[in-house]
Structures are given as C-alpha cells and as structure tokens.
Predict the structure.
Amino acid sequence: MRAYAGMFRMKFIAGLQYRAAAWAGISTQFVWGFALIMLYQAFYRSSSAALPMEWGQLVSYIWLQQAFLALIMLWSQDGDLLSQITNGQVAYELCRPYDLFGLWYFRLLAGRLSSVLLRFVPVIVIAMMIPSPYRLVLPPDLGAFGLFVLSIAFSSFLVVAISMFIYILTFITLSSVGARLAVGVLSDFLMGALIPIPLMPDWLQRILDWLPFRYIADLPLRLYSGNIVGADAFRQIAVQMVWLLLLLLAGKLWFNRVLRNVVVQGG
Amino acid sequence: MIYFKYVKMALKSLAQYRLSLLLTTIGQLAATALAFLSMWLLFDRFGTLDGYSFGEVALTFCVTLTAFAFTECFFRGFDTFSHMIRQGTFDRVLLRPRGTVLQVIGSTVEFSRLGRLAVSVTMLLWAIGNSGFEWTILKGVALMLMLISGVFIFAGVFILGATVCFWTMDGLEFINIFTDGAREFASYPLTIYAKRVTQFFTFIIPYGCINYLPLTYITGRSDNPLYALTPLFGIAFIIPCFLLWRWGVRHYLSTGN
C-alpha cells in the first residue's frame, strides 16, 4: 500500500509542474465552452417544445464538462507508459516486486487529478462571474452539491478503470494509436461530451444507460444542476459503483493474463 | 512536380505500418461520422436552428469539414512545424534550393486523415443530394469556390500558426482555437452566434466567405449572384499569411543543434 501511495505522490507532484500547458488548456476550453453555449442558445431560441433540460442546467453541464475535461476525457493518456509498452522498456516495470495493475492504476489516477487540479478552478470561477445567459449557476441545494462531489470522485476512479483497458489493448496490438483513438472517439459520444445525453432521443438514452460511459461525465454533471434528483440519484450512483467494481475486477484479471503472455519488444 | 515526389515518399513510409494506419483511419472515420450524427440528433430534438433547416446546416457542416480534412491531409506540415524548429531541421530546409513553403508542406503528408476526407466527401455528396435546393450552374460554381476557398483559409491559418513559431520556438497550443475551434464555429451558419463572433470570423479570419455569405445565394435566400463569388475573398486571405511567413523566415534564428 505504501508503494501505491508513493507512486501517487510522485506522479501527482510531477503533474503539478505543467502550468504553462494548463493555461493553454484553460483558454482553449473557454472558447469551446462559449462556442457550444452560443450554438445551444440558437437551438433553444428556435424551439418552442418542452425541453428535457432547462437553460441553466445545460449551461452548467457545458461549463463543468470543460472544467473537468482533463479528468473525464479518455483520449488523454499517459504517453510515457504507452511508449514503454511498445518499445520494450516495460521489462523494467515487470521486474518490480509490486502488483503492476495497482501501481499503474494509482499512477494514472495521480496524473489525472494533478492535471484537473491545475485547470478546474479558473474555469469555474470565471464561468461564475460572466454575465447571465452564459453564467454557471450554483447547484439548487447543498444536497445536489454533495451528490455531485461524491459522484465526480467515483468518476475519476471509473475513468482510470476504463483507461486500463487501453493499456491492455496496447500490450496486445503493440500500437497505442489505434486503441487510444478508438476508445477516445467512441467514449466521447457515449459519455455525452459531443452533445448532452438528455438532449438525445429516448431510445438512445436507454441504450446509454446500460453502458458505463455516461456514469463518467453525464451523471455527476446532472446531479450538480438538479437534473437528476431523489431516489433516482442514489440509484444511479449505486450503478456507478457497480460499474467501477466490475471494470476493476475484469481489468485486473485480463491485465494479469496479458502479462503472462507478454513478449518484450526490442533489446 | 516535386510535391508529388514528397507525397509518394510519405505513402511508402506509411506502408510499413499497415495495422496502425488501418486503426487510425477507422478512428478518424468514426470521429467524423459521430460529429455529423450529433448534429442530426440535435435537429431531431429541436427541429430547426434559428430558421435554418437541417439540409442547409448539413451543407455548411460538410463544406467546412471537407475543406478542413483536405487541408489537414496535405498542409499538416505547418501544423507540426514547431517540431521542425525545435529540432533544428528547418536549417536544412533553408539550405536547399527550393521554396520553404513547398518543403514544409512536403515534410508531412497525413494519409491517416484520408479516412476523414473520404467520409467528409461522402457526407457532402449526400448533403447536396438531400438539400432540397434547386441547383444551377452558378450554385455549383459557388459550392466549388467554397471548398477551394475553405482550403486556402485553413491553410492560411496553419501558416500563421507556424509563423508564430519563429519567435516562440514552440508551438502555441492556443492556435488550436483558430484551427480546431474555428472549424467548430464555422460548421454552423455564423449568423447564429453573437454579433461580435460573426464579425470576427468575417472580417479578421474570413470564414464568412465560405459560410453564410455564399450560402445565402445557394439556399435561395438572396438572388444576388455576387454572393456566389464571395469565396474569392477567402482565397485572398492566403496572401497576407504568405507575406507574414516570408517575413518570419527572414527573422528566423536557429535553435542550434
């Protein structure tokens, strides 16, 4: 356990050094946020039908997504680790007397947390200060905020659990490009990063309910704005935890199997 | 022509990594298709976008996407130019008796983006077929001009981003705002945005020339055939970009190495 904590601390502190990159990310995320909000503004202007998301809920969905982008996006992965697998340096990692799955899990978790920690505060603070149609509003009550915090914590565990499959696939295909792109592109759509899930047709939403991806980004954002409340909120957080446990277990089993058959490349 | 030799060379080197190429192409393909699907889903929910029909927006969306995919495929060298500066390989470029622009363009040809280009073109043809406009020869010309002009504008922005590297010695991430970000903006008719944004993308970076200006003619909102020729202004955008680039080359100080 101490090894995991050490790995976590090391990666976390290293991640906090990349401040210039963080500022570039923040400015880009602002432009994206504004572009999306203006687009939806035009869509909301043109529709008179009842919509499944109030305007305030949609705005907070978009801003929170931008603020926590570094946490939830599956296409951002640890490039070092991936190239270690493809160029054979992973052999050194295999020599360590630790459970590699756990060690890498905490390494990835630390990378994500440090990078989101550098980014989310400025985005949220500025989004709360800008004028009204664009402003990020506070959650309706303290309960909603509490559920959001709980759920986004599970999200970060869940997104790393899914990430581990990209590393497993890289062991098998020996090229990180394909696995990363395929998982990244699909998950973007399935987690509601391309368009908010409540705006999708009902039949599609029912399908996405059965996949783990919307529990990464969609659930916490809707808990924040009070789009999901009451017993439903607790039920969905429970589903999120079940997915987390299932994927951790499946990932660990598959990871160990792949390690048994690993062929180290290079010399 | 010498450019085609560059293209052939890039093809040959890629043929060595077939699996990787295949996976990346599929990924790019899915990315484009899902972006289009998302737009369709929004129309499914809202019906109309500020008076624009799905056919009109689909056409705008596909023109922008196709022009961007084409530019990314063949002008990617400028997008990755910061590597060239940092590794000092630009010095080599300067020593050769050919133009710098040609050599930088030839340094990277991204065939993995061909998947994206293929899907974009397919979707564009579909959008043309299902748009429900009355097509005339002049409208066809306007559409072709939109595509050509789009490539010129995106290439111009790539060149500007690369020019900045002469001073910063590093790629500036925020240039993405004007390439990827602007592609996102220009995928929809620019008039739906706040007025300032529309003005910026018309007068500073002339995305308006490939977007709502010629579109007003194609969709029949205006009969003035001059609108069909507005993309020509977009093509002219490359001239100041090119001049800035030449100015940058003259001020280039090598990083050594």
About this structure: Chain B touches chain A through 38 residues (CB under 8 Å).
